[in-house]
Amino acid sequence: MVRIEIRPEELAYRIKDYNPSFDDTHLNKAYVFGLTAHGKQTRASGESYFNHPVEVAGILTKMKLDEATIITGLLHDVVEDSDTSLDEIERKFGSVIRQLVDGVTKLSQVEMSVSGDVSNTTKQVENLRKFILAMSKDIRVLLVKLADRLHNMRTLSGLKNPDKRKRIAIETLDLYAPLAGRIGLNDFKDELEDLAFAELQPEANQFISSKLSELQILEQDLIAAISEELTKGLQSQSLKATVQGRMKSPFSIWKKMQRKNVSFENLSDIMAFRILVDSLADCYQALGVVHTAYSTVPGRFKDYISTPKSNGYQSIHTCVIGPHKHRIEVQIRTREMQEVADRGVAAHWSYKEGVPNKDHLNLLWLRDLQEVSDSSADPEDFLEHAKLSLYSDQVFCFTPRGEVYSLPAKATAIDFAYAVHSEIGYHCVGAKINGIIAPLRTVLRNGDQVEILTSPSQVPQIEWGSFAVTGKVKSSVKRARAQAEREEHIYRGLHALQKEFLAENYPFSEKPLEQARRNFAAKSIEDLYIMISENKITARDLFHSIFPGTRLVAQKSKKPNGAADGEQGTVSVLTRAVNSSSLPIQGLPAAMAYHLAGCCHPLPGDRIVGIVSPGKGATIHTIGCPSLASLCEHSERWLDLSWNLEVTAANNHLGRITAVIAHQPEAMGNLCTVIGMNHATINNLKITHKWPDHYEIMLDIEVRDLRHLTHIITALRANPAVNSVERRAVIA
Ligand code: MN
Fold it and tell me: Is 705 known to be catalytic?
C-alpha cells in the first residue's frame, strides 16, 4: 500500500544535474521527516499521501529551483495535515524553510476564487489580501503553491466529489493559471488550463482530443516530416537549430474556436513548431529562412524579442503556409529565451543565490498590489485593482512606421489613435489592424500593427465612449457630447425663432440679432438661441425686442408663400446638425443621404462603414466587404457608422445564404419550413450547384437584422436534411 513513486536518490540526482555541488543531507532528512509525518495518511485515490509532496518536489526540480524551495515542496503539507508545528520545522530545517512552509500553508488556507461569489465581496477581498501578503514576502511560496496545484490538478480524477472537483478547476482557471502566466511560467499555465478545461468542459475536450488524435493517425508522421523539412532548410543556411513540433493543446484550440467562431474543420493551424537557436542574430536569420521558404499568413507576425512581454517572455512568433501546405505556427527563440519561457521568474535567479532580488524579477506588479492592499480602504476598489493586475497587462502596438505605443489592456483602435496624437484621434474614421480594415471598437492585442485612417471632416463620435478605455478618448468624447448638446440647443432655439419670424411674416436674418444679443447680455448669437431653447427667454420676447412695433395679433396672420404650416417654410434654412436619434444609421453628418451597398447588403447589426461620394451621399458597406479594399487610399471618404437597432425593426433587409442540402424528397420542404417558422420570407431562391446526392442552393431571405439571420442559419444547421449553411457576405 505505501509505495512512493519518487525515491530521494532520484530527487537528488535531478538536482545534481543542474547543481553539481549539491549535498543531499538536508534533502534526505526532509524526505524522511515528511514520510514519517504523513505516516499512513492516504489520498482520495487510495495511494500514500506522501506521494503528493514528493511529486510536488519533483515538479520543482524541473524548474531547477534551489534546495530550500524543493525541501519546502516536500514539507508543504505537514503543518496543515499532521501535528507538526512550525517551531519544529524551524528547529530541524532553519528559519527560511519555516517561513516558506508557513507561507504555503497560509496560501492553502485561503480558499477563494477571484471571480467567485460577488455577494461576498468583503470576504473575498480579505482572502485575497491574505493571499497576496503570503506570496509577496517570498515568490518561492507561490512557486511551491503552483507546483502543488499542478499536481493536484493532474490527480484531480482521484477526487470522488464532483462539486469539489469543479470548484478546484474553476479556481485553477480563475486564479492559478493567470498567476502562473503572470510570472512567466507558460508551460504551467497551459497545463493548468488544459486540466481545468478537461474537468469543466468534458464533452468539448473529448471532441477536440479525439479530432486531434484522428488527425495524427490520418496524417501519420506529419509533425516529424514538417520538422525535418524545417531543419533541412535551416541547415542549408548553416544555422545550428533544433526544431520541436507539437499539436496545440485542446484548450488553446477551443479558445480559438470560440474567438474566431469557426468549427474544428475550418481551424487550420493546429500544429506549432519551435525553432531553438544559439544567438539573437540567429533568430532573425532563422526567421529569414522561414519567410523565404514559405508564404506568411498576414497579421500573425509578432516580435517579442525587440519588445518582450512584461513577464520577460521573448520570442518571435509567425505563421506560415509551411511544408505540405499546412498552416503552421512557428516560434523562434534562443535557448536562453527558452529557459525564461520554461522557468519564468525562476530563470533569473540561480539555485545558489537563495532569496532572489525582487527588482530583477519583474515583480513590481506584486509590490504595487501589496501597496494598494495596505492603503485601500474600499474593498471593491482593491478587488478591481487586484483583478486588473492579475489578469491584465499592457498591450504594445505599433504604427506602420514601427513606433511602439503601450496601452492598457482592452484598449481599442480609437485609444491607439488618440495615443498617437489627439488630432489623429479627433479625425479618426477607421483603422487597419495588421493590414486589414477593422472596426474602431476592435480590442488590440500585443504586437498589433495599427494604421489609423483619418478624415479632416471627422469629429469625435459620442459612441466612441462606449468602447474606449483611455481617459484621453473619454474626455474628448465628453467634450464632443457637450458640444452636441450645445448644437442641439442652438438648433432648437434657432428653429423656434425662425418660426416666430415666419409667423410675423418677416424674412429671417441674423443681422438684427446683434442688438438683441446685447439687450439680453448674451455672449454670442448662438448663446441667444441656447437661451431660447433652455426657456430662459421666449422666441416671442426676442422677436419683440428686435421689432418693438409688431403686435401680438400678428400671431394669427396668414402664413407666407401659401405654406400650410410655418414649419415647412423653415426646413430649407436648417443646415445645422440634425438630431440623429431617429435615424437607422448613426454617425452620418447632418442630413447626409445614404444608401445600402448592393455588393454586400449590410444588415442591421453588421459592422458598417460609409463611403462618401460627392453629391451622392454615403454608401454603406459591411466592414468586411471586399470592395472596400480599393478605397483604402481614400481615408477622407470613410465614415465610422453604426446601426441604431431601435429603429430598424422592420422585416425588410435582405440576407443571402447558401445551403447544401441532401437530394431527398423532403429536404427542400424542410429548409423552407425552418425559414418560415422563424418568421422570415424567402425573396429569391436558386439552385447553384448539383451533385448526385446534394444540391447547393442560394437564398435571399427578408430578415429583421443580423441576429435574425444568424438565428435562422443556426436553426438550419440543426436540421438533419441540411448539410451546411453559410451567410454569403457578398451579393453578386
Ligand atoms: Mn499539497
Answer: no
Distance 148 CA to ligand 1 centre (A): 5
Distance, CA of 188 to CA of 179 (rounded, Å): 10
* Residue range 444-496, pLDDT digits in tens: 876 678 899 888 878 888 888 889 988 788 888 888 888 778 887 888 888 88
C-alpha cell at 269: 493551424
SS (H, E, C) 49-97: CCHHHHHHHHHHHHCCCCHHHHHHHHHCCHHHHCCCCHHHHHHHHCHHH
What is residue 327's three-state secondary structure? strand
> Please, is 213 exposed, middle or buried when counting C-beta atoms within 10 Å of its C-beta (0-12, 13-18, 19+)?
exposed
pLDDT in tens, 274-316: 999 999 999 999 999 998 888 888 777 888 888 877 667 889 9
Query: Residues 81, 90, 278, 526: which is the catalytic one?
Result: 81
pTM confidence score: 0.53
* pLDDT single digits (tens) 577-594: 334 455 678 887 766 778
Q: Please name which of 324, 335, 327 lies closest in space to residue 275, comparing C-alpha atoms.
A: 335
Is 81 annotated in the active site?
Answer: yes
* 475 phi and psi angles, rounded to 5 deg: -70, -30
Angle between helix 67-75 and 86-93 (nearest 10): 140
Choosing from 5, 80, 117, 565, the catalytic residue is: 80
Please give the grid coordinates belonging to residue 603: 444588415
Closest CA to 512 of 556, 536, 544: 544
Do residues 715 and 654 lie in contact, with contact meaning Cβ atoms separated by under 8 Å? no
